[in-house]
């Protein structure tokens, strides 16, 4: 698909400086630009590349001053980075604008779906599934009975959505993600064996949630595991049964959240964090990578370490951690001197 400089400027509300009919069909970094590609310049550190890039069109800030001859057509905008991001969104929307039902696929007669549906080959949609408008379901997706999916959702290849799950609008689920598998619920017996506790709740995903590849969200034992609106989950995250993740919280890869923990709004949680069960994490909490959380956390705390404690205290303590061998040696020397004096 090709776009002219004039068309791109129209989308971005920008001004063309150069050939308005210059065409592009791909995107590139400015230092790797080739003929027919579109790039952008936002970071001043990369300014030198605009004089050598072979990209056909470059998006720049209105304030950018050209100091040498250039070969690229410029589109001047208020914010080059923001405009390029907007263009990426537009490009992705066009790329994902598939419609129709591919065969072979299985769709139960009781399933309903809105206009603009795309269902990829080898997908399975169970009984009483309700799907909204403009939903894209890629090949090899499994959707169990009684699942509800809102408008404008995208479910990428190989994702699995178990029965009774509820998805809001504008939800993106990436390949290999699993929603609604049984929670890790077992009752220990006197014999040492474990008896499975039935998991009869569900998973609720609210609007504008992104779920990364390979992430798993378990169904509740009773009630619901809930991911609130605006949450962003990275790849390979484990969310256990009856967990609630608050609005606009972001969690990085390989984090595990144990059962019945409640995470507040606008939290930022780094990679490989472990959070124990039945805890309450407040709003706007920041947890550094590889931290272990075993206690309730108040609003606005910043934590690091395992077990985690206040970020500033951890940094101060780390200086001493590195010097522990020297400190121990000094203490031993002092002890020997005291013994000698006696």
What is the terminal separation in angstroms? Answer: 89 Å
Q: What Rg, in angstroms, do the CA atoms define?
A: 27 Å
Shape: flat
Give helix % range: 10-25%
Low-confidence stretches: none
CATH architecture of the largest domain: 3 Solenoid
Strand order of the largest sheet: 8-11-14-17-20-25-28-31-34-37-39-40
Structural class: alpha/beta
CATH fold title of the largest domain: UDP N-Acetylglucosamine Acyltransferase, domain 1
Q: What is the CATH H-level superfamily of the largest domain? A: Hexapeptide repeat proteins
What does the average pLDDT come to? 94
Number of helices: 4
Number of DSSP strand runs: 40
When the domains are counted, the total is 2
Q: Mind explaining what this structure looks like?
A:
The chain is of the alpha/beta class and 342 residues long. The chain has two domains: 3-95, MurE/MurF, N-terminal domain (Udp-n-acetylmuramoylalanyl-d-glutamate--2,6- Diaminopimelate Ligase, Chain: A, domain 1); 100-314, UDP N-Acetylglucosamine Acyltransferase, domain 1, CATH 2.160.10.10. The chain is 16% helix and 30% strand. The chain contains four helices and 40 strands. The chain has a twelve-stranded mixed beta sheet with strand order 8-11-14-17-20-25-28-31-34-37-39-40. A ten-stranded parallel beta sheet has the order 9-12-15-18-21-26-29-32-35-38, with no helix packed on it. The radius of gyration is 27 Å and the shape is flat. The mean pLDDT is 94.
């Amino acid at each position: 698909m090709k776009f002219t400089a004039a068309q791109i400027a129209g989308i971005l509300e920008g001004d063309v400086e150069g050939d308005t009919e210059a065409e592009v069909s791909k995107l590139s970094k400015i230092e790797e630009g080739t003929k027919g590609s579109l790039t952008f310049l936002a970071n001043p550190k990369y300014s030198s590349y605009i004089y050598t890039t072979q990209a056909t069109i470059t998006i720049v800030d209105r304030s950018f001053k050209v100091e040498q001859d250039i070969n690229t057509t410029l589109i001047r905008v208020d914010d080059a980075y923001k405009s390029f991001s907007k263009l990426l969104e537009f490009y992705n929307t066009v790329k994902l604008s598939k419609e129709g039902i591919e065969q072979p696929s299985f769709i139960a007669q009781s399933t309903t779906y809105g206009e603009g549906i795309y269902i990829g080959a080898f997908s399975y949609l169970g009984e009483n599934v309700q799907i909204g408008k403009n939903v894209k379901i890629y090949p090899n997706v499994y959707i169990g009975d009684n699942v509800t999916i809102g408008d404008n959702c995208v479910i990428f290849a190989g994702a699995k959505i178990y029965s009774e799950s509820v998805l809001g609008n504008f939800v993106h689920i990436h390949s290999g993600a699993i929603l609604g598998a049984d929670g890790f619920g077992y009752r220990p017996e006197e014999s040492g064996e474990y008896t499975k506790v039935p998991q009869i709740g569900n998973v609720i995903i609210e609007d504008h949630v992104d779920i990364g590849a390979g992430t798993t969200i378990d169904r509740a034992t009773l009630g619901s595991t809930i991911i609130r609106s605006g949450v962003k989950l990275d790849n390979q995250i484990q969310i256990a049964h009856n967990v609630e993740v608050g609005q606009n919280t972001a969690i990085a890869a390989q984090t595990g959240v144990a059962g019945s923990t409640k995470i507040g709004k606008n939290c930022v949680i780094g990679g490989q964090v472990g959070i124990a069960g039945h805890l309450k994490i407040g709003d706007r909490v920041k947890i550094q990578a590889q931290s272990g959380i075993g206690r309730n956390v108040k609003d606005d705390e910043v934590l690091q370490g395992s077990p985690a404690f206040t970020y500033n205290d951890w940094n101060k303590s780390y200086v001493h951690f590195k010097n522990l061998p020297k400190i121990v040696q000094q203490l031993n020397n002092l002890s020997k001197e005291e013994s000698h004096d006696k």
